[in-house]
Q: What sequence folds into this?
């Protein structure tokens, strides 16, 4: 029983304080709060926090396991790269920039410039700038236009909350911040948030929640903060 529990703890990182087991075998990965840029076959790759990538297709493709990354294909001089995420294959055309996100069940592919072809099962869609595909189950769940400035904000050093529940915003902050912010009240979790938060100083958001919503802040060891 103890051995089984230990194996579960290794596979399921408590509070996100170390990489998930699957990420340990990645060819490229980032730690909490880290961003990293790479050049793979002439394609500029920007990896966000807690992201893991593997080479696949004999080295000509990349598999995004968990996290978020942007892929910029030059207008010329590169054969490009196929990106695999959650059972889908994304093929960006020359001169294309896409943002690919896979965080738990939240899987999205957003075209920021150029065009990209997304195939999942028997369905194929072509994404133009400002269009985003969401994946769900074993299918392409939806394709819709989105505000790309929010999608692109992490590359500029910001986290943008656009009328989102506080619980959702805190989940995203926890991806970037060591430790954990925990909301202890359901009413506070549901409060809507409109904010622009600097990734270099995420604790300013804790002050904002305290000052605007009157939340009680309890600081605990290990970077854990209780909001209630």
A:
């Amino acid at each position: 029983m103890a051995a089984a529990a230990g194996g579960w703890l290794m596979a399921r990182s408590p509070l996100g304080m170390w990489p998930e087991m699957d990420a340990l075998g990645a060819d490229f990965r980032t730690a909490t709060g880290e961003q990293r840029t790479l050049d793979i076959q002439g394609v500029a790759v920007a990896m966000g926090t807690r992201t893991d990538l593997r080479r696949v297709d004999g080295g000509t493709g990349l598999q995004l396991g968990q996290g978020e990354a942007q892929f910029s294909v030059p207008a010329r001089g590169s054969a490009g790269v196929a990106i695999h995420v959650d059972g889908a294959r994304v093929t960006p055309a020359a001169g294309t920039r896409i943002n690919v996100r896979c965080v738990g069940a939240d899987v999205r592919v957003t075209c920021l410039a150029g065009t990209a072809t997304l195939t999942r099962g028997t369905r194929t869609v072509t994404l133009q700038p400002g269009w985003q595909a969401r994946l769900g189950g074993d299918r392409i769940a939806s394709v819709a236009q989105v505000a790309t400035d929010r999608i692109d904000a992490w590359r500029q050093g910001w986290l943008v909350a656009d009328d989102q529940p506080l619980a959702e915003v805190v989940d995203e902050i926890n991806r970037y911040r060591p430790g954990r912010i925990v909301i202890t009240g359901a009413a506070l979790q549901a409060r809507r948030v409109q904010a622009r938060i600097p990734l270099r100083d995420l604790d300013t958001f804790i002050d904002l929640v305290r000052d605007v919503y009157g939340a009680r802040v309890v600081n605990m060891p290990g970077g854990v903060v209780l909001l209630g």
User: Anything to note?
Assistant: The first strand starts at residue 28 and ends at 29. The chain has two domains: 28-151, 157-227. The chain is about 20% helix and 45% strand. The helical segments are 2-11, 148-152, 166-176, 186-190, 203-213.
